[in-house]
Amino acid sequence: MTRIGRSDLDILPLSLGGNVFGWTADRDTSFEVLDAFHAGGGDFIDTADAYSAWAPGNSGGESETLIGEWLASRAPRDVVVATKVSQHPEFRGLSAKNVRAAAEASLSRLGLDTIDLYYAHFDDADTPLEETVAAFADLVRDGLVRYVGVSNYSASRIREWISLAEAAGADLPVAVQPHYNLVHRTEVEREIVPVAEQYGMSLVPYYALASGFLTGKYRGGDAASESPRAEGAAKLATPAGLALIDALEEVGAAHDASIASTALAWLRAQPTVAAPIASASKVSQVADLLAGAALELTADEIARLSAASEPAQA
Fold first, then answer.
1. 129-141 vs 155-168: helix crossing angle, rounded to 10
2. How far apart are CA 61 and CA 50, in angstroms?
């Protein structure tokens, strides 16, 4: 178990991504994935109010609705739920009025009284940051949210958020959600990690498996049409990217672990990372994700993978 930042949220160091629920995973499959994740010790679920508005026939909120139905059906104990605001078609931006309305809508879909971790999904240049910070503080004060996080924010804007929160006596963010994995490292390690270290925040990285590329399934490029996300992942299959996959396979073999599990273990071992986010559109994929939460790589193995990843940066 690990703790998210300065919070009291103790979680298995892996977050199940809910972006596929209601998109590439229908209701029955979503329930099977959630059941397998929870049965394997998983207790941290990540979603957003906008998931999955981009899919034909969807309008946003589908993922939260399915998670809420699963929570009501299973009544699991000690599950931590994170969701986000700013991208739902009906609740765009981070004005105070919108943040409050979106949080109430998310709570209704999730069937919860309180959101454990609530992220500002994307920065909103049209709303004064003071207004957004105050809106999140009000949600915490009123018991609708336990802890605050920021997602896709620059280091300078995170520092500005923290300064405003400190001046107002508001709760500081405990988590940062960046795009971070073995093929997308440089900016996060140079800019975001130092801020997280300074203020005691945890990273909860998304795209932990680079949309599936870091599972090894796109080695031959023949899986590029299998799913809506596959085309982008297949583009990472450069010579340097494939050499990284080879290194992951060799390191994983020493632990009888898959490429995916090994990639998650590397990410989990990075400074300030609490729990990589990884999604599963099939129940058969869950075991590898959970294994990544338990796999402990040696310092030499971590260094080898870091070196192999340098030429593969997207």
1. 60
2. 6
